[in-house]
Amino acid sequence: MDAEPAPSKEDFPEDVTDTRSHLNVVFIGHVDAGKSTIGGQILFLSGMVDERTIQKYEREAKEKNRESWYMAYIMDTNEEERAKGKTVEVGRASFETAKTRFTILDAPGHKNYVPNMISGASQADIGVLVISARKGEFETGFERGGQTREHAQLAKTLGVAKLLVVVNKMDDPSVGWDKERFDEIEKKMTPFLKSCGYNIKKDVQFLPISGLYGTNLKERMPTSVCSWWEGPCLFEALDSVEPPQRDATGPFRYWSVRINGGLDSVTFAVLRMPIIDRYKDMGTVVMGKIEAGSVRRGDNLVVMPNKAPVKVITIFRDADEVNQAKPGENLRVRLSGLEEDDISSGFVLSSSSNAIPAVLEFDAQLQVLELLDHKAIFTAGYKAVLHIHAVVEECEIMELMQQIDPKTKKPMKKKVLFVKGGAVVVVRIQVPAPICIEKFQDLPQMGRFTLRDEGKTVAIGKVIKLRQE
């Protein structure tokens, strides 16, 4: 049977109305480091929030005896977050420079909300790791069990390739823009970030700032404030990050088609947009980031894994309605043909002719981290919670297939029955319901994952084989 013809260039539309690159920025770090306050300042300084709104937030914060939290109110919009001064959900907002359009993802820092942080980081291109310079606060976040370590480790695992480390609260009386304190934090963080897999010279940059007063955010700070800093401000550092290479056709699928009576192989476009949320508004609206391929109004697509055919009615990018969108864009897409209740987070909006695989089992290469004290052995039967793109699902290790020598990177010959923390092992994983994933080599954003157990990250991994019936 003849396959569909190869697509033309028109099948991969680009957004011609705005040629600037788009980047997702996730703010991560220990609770109370100042992530939401920095996000609020960025929105104010970039003109996304007006002075009257800021004054309103100042009054609200003062009424709650939380004067210094008013900037965080821009990002923390629900009452629970404002009452506790802690981000619970992943806050979203947008700002732009002459060169780049940014989406801010304000991830919660509290250890109880790490799964929400994973959701934010899995969509990000750049990470801004916020460190508090205040005496005692950096040490609390960086010590064993602190969220600074776990967030940095997870960010690298989840594909956040570039990291800006902002040393916040440099204006605090206990610090006073002290260069020695800044250098001390950089010296302690550098070997740890290197151990996470970051290339310090290429991928990491340290910056001193004050989120509360907006110092060194949009404009370089004057020498009268900090005489020793000669580097860029945060906006400059963000603007200098090169956008990751994205393929407008996604992971290739090869099809044999009949051309002039003979068989030939061509590639066909693949759309992959993991759905992070959905709601009802004149139809069903899904939210997500395009990880591969392109989408345009009028496309006939499919939502996986339930194989539901849908049609694209409207595409929203931030507040704008657009006709088409390309990889890396955060979208709200209004669909027809499917009810809101039939969609869950982790489902994927996909090309109908090249639907994403839905599997119950897959093989993966795992780096086992520090295990729980009372579950110090990792073996077949181990159960954990799998986080892969927008999927959160219980899983079970069905088989340990091979152990990898960490030095040579080659499989070890001996049969492996169990491993301990620090081991690299190839395993077979099973989930109770079908999930949509790709092999890491085909689409890294949908093939890297973490395993968590009792609130702790116990392994990071990449999908190497899909087991489809």
UniProtKB/TrEMBL annotation:
Any one GO CC term of the record: translation release factor complex
Keyword set includes Nucleotide-binding: yes
Name listed for the protein in its UniProt record: Tr-type G domain-containing protein
Family the UniProt entry places it in: Belongs to the TRAFAC class translation factor GTPase superfamily. Classic translation factor GTPase family. EF-Tu/EF-1A subfamily.
Main location: cytoplasm
Biological process per Gene Ontology, one example term: translation
Keywords, alphabetical: Cytoplasm, GTP-binding, Methylation, Nucleotide-binding
Domain Tr-type G: 20-246
Source species, domain of life: Eukaryota
